[in-house]
Automatic annotation (TrEMBL):
Name of the protein this chain belongs to: UDP-N-acetylmuramoyl-L-alanyl-D-glutamate--2,6-diaminopimelate ligase
Chain location of the short sequence motif Meso-diaminopimelate recognition motif per the record: 414-417
InterPro entries given in the database record: Mur-like_cat_sf, Mur_ligase_C, Mur_ligase_C_dom_sf, Mur_ligase_cen, Mur_ligase_N, MurE/MurF_N, UDP-N-AcMur-Glu-dNH2Pim_ligase
Gene label: murE
Major site of localization recorded for this protein: cytoplasm
Gene Ontology MF term list: UDP-N-acetylmuramoylalanyl-D-glutamate-2,6-diaminopimelate ligase activity
UniProt binding sites for meso-2,6-diaminopimelate: R390, D414, N415, P416, R417, G466, E470
Residue intervals of the Mur ligase C-terminal domain: 341-468
């Protein structure tokens, strides 16, 4: 088993409930020593303050008994929660969610002020950008926080959400401080901004990559989604903005933000950091980077697609802003071994190229297929689907994007969750059927991958889109182990 980094600091904080209540301009009805904080009853460790918040399906106060049994010494909650809690001393504030990030940072002694923090937001490329930042930093001690989890000094530390809730995040920051981390590059989701998960500290640099259709089950429309992300680019959250002005929303944000701005472009726009002389090849892209004050450095991005050049430029612009040398950063990026499930090349001795990619949004499907077209001599074959219990409107658009850019589209299942898989496939097919190429529907993800392997020849590229690094398929509410990479290798080997 891989060794994992701890998720709580070794140096345990000690606060009385009264001290914490005072910090929130509140009072408490008992005494006790608090040594940590958690937001979910199942994360509580002895000595924690349990933060009981109202949720979409229940009020956290309903789990105060569980929290107590796990060793919680008190509850932070709102008046509604207080009416439900009987078993633990309380600190009551009107806006418990508003208080939790500030208090979490206070409990662990503002740990993120000990290192440089880079917050990365955008619809696509957050994970890739943080991983490229880790590679760019080479021997400097770094941490990444995001969808694949947290890594501290390249060691995994479990975390679940793309942007963890503040109690978990601040504890991880405290571990990073103990590990003498110099830079933490983290993904900042729009959910996190709306829910105040990154309140309580200020990023040194905030990065905007792009904005496209996503999460319209959470945000009421694209404008609402944009404004949620734009909040990161205010003094409450960040000191400096690094913005991709090739993206229309990026251009708008650069004009809107009150922060000092550094811009970047791979598309010939007048930006502070520019990619020129871009030379794509089968394994990645070579180019030159032009920066402020006559900086010029060669860069070799070892991941295919111009969008990865954009991600790499975001890394150089943001870390140069934080004081790192662009030439060293470029040298570090060239050593990147890639990101699990992001444009991941699978080689099991087959005559065609096989790629597993986490593209699960229409723009990502387009970006991936556009990137692979110039390096594919034969046909582009994509296996694609759409997740259940999420934004239905996205499904035909996924099919449409695939059909517009691939020669063969195999529409299949992609985490149907509790929904009927055939109905989701029909939605995706309704978009895929409009393209110039061949669109076929195959029930069952394994069967669809087998179909792609069976039809691929020398010179073709097969893309298995959607799940990337993930290890399971939720079908009728039950998780079934499934790894695209393993299944692909198994099917290639058994086809030989
Ligand atoms: C829509 C959303 O963001 N929901 C979040 C929200 O859940 P909720 O309001 O439904 O909470 P609830 O289940 O009613 O529970 C109420 C409270 O009781 C607590 N509880 C609940 C059950 C229990 O046994 N014990 C317990 O303590 C919960 O921690 C919560 O504080 O509050 C919970 C506690 O913090 C979060 O875990 C939960 O995230 C869920 C898991 C989630 O899937 N969020 C996704 C949508 C998300 O945030 N995604 C973004 C990235 C998206 C992307 O870019 O792809 C992310 O940053 O990960
Ligand atoms: N800058 C970009 N522009 C467009 N597409 C991109 C970009 N970077 C990555 N992609 C595509 O999006 C997919 C997801 O990339 P990545 O995981 O880095 O994004 P993310 O923002 O972290 O996504 P999520 O929040 O859903 O985890 C990649 O596998 C690739 O297909």
């Amino acid at each position: 088993m891989t060794e994992e980094m701890r998720v709580r600091p070794d140096e345990v904080p000690q606060w009385t409930l009264t001290e914490l209540a005072n910090e929130l301009d509140s009072t408490t009805n008992a005494e006790g020593t608090v040594t940590g904080i958690s937001l979910h009853s199942k994360h509580v460790v002895p000595g924690d303050l349990y933060a009981a918040l109202p949720g979409a399906s229940s009020h956290g106060a309903a789990f105060a008994g569980v929290a107590k049994a796990r060793g919680a010494v008190g509850v932070l909650t709102d008046p509604e929660g207080a009416a439900l809690v009987t078993e633990l001393p309380e600190i009551i504030v009107d806006d418990a969610r508003g208080a939790i990030a500030k208090l979490s940072s206070f409990i662990y002694g503002d740990p993120s002020s000990s290192f440089t923090t880079i917050g990365v937001t955008g619809t696509q490329g957050k994970t890739t950008t943080t991983y490229l930042a880790e590679a760019a930093l080479g021997e400097h001690k770094s941490a990444v926080v995001g969808t694949i989890g947290t890594r501290i000094g390249k060691m995994p530390a479990p975390s679940s959400l793309t942007t963890p809730e503040a109690p978990q995040l601040q504890a991880l920051f405290a571990v990073m401080r103990e590990e003498a981390i110099e830079v933490c590059a983290m993904e900042v989701s729009s959910h996190a901004l709306v829910q105040g998960r990154v309140d309580g500290f200020v990023f040194d640099v905030a990065v905007f990559l792009n904005l496209g259709r996503d999460h319209l089950d959470f945000h009421k429309d694209l404008e609402d989604y944009f404004l949620a992300k734009a909040a990161l680019f205010t003094p409450q959250h960040s000191k400096h903005a690094v913005i991709n002005i090739d993206d229309a929303h990026g251009k708008r944000l650069a004009e809107l933000t009150p922060l000092p701005v550094t811009t970047f472009s791979t598309d010939g726009n007048q930006a502070d950091w520019r990619a020129v002389n871009i030379r794509p090849h089968r394994l990645g892209t070579d180019l030159e980077v032009l920066g402020p004050n006559g900086v010029e450095v060669p860069l070799s991005v070892p991941l295919p697609g111009v969008f990865n050049v954009s991600n790499a430029l975001a890394v150089i612009a943001s870390l140069a802003q934080a004081g790192f040398d662009p030439a060293e950063l470029a040298a570090g990026i060239a050593t990147s071994t890639g990101v699990p499930g992001r444009m991941e090349r699978i080689d099991a001795g087959q005559p065609f190229t096989a790629i597993v990619d986490y593209a699960h949004k229409p723009d990502a499907v387009t970006a991936v297929l556009d990137a692979l077209r110039p390096v594919t001599a034969g046909r582009l074959i994509i296996v694609i689907g759409a997740g259940g219990d999420r934004d239905h409107g996205k499904r035909p658009l996924m099919g449409e994007a695939a059909a517009k850019h691939a020669d063969v589209v195999i529409v299949t299942d992609d985490n149907p969750r509790k929904e009927n898989a055939a109905a989701i496939r029909a939605d995706v097919m309704s978009g895929a059927g409009n393209g110039p190429g061949l669109a076929i529907e195959v029930a069952g993800r394994r069967e669809a991958i087998a179909q792609a392997v069976a039809m691929a020849h020398l010179g073709d590229t097969v893309v298995i889109a959607g799940k990337g690094h993930e290890r399971g398929q939720e079908i009728r509410g039950k998780i079934h182990p499934f790894d695209d990479r393993e299944v692909l290798i198994e099917l290639i080997e058994s086809a030989e």
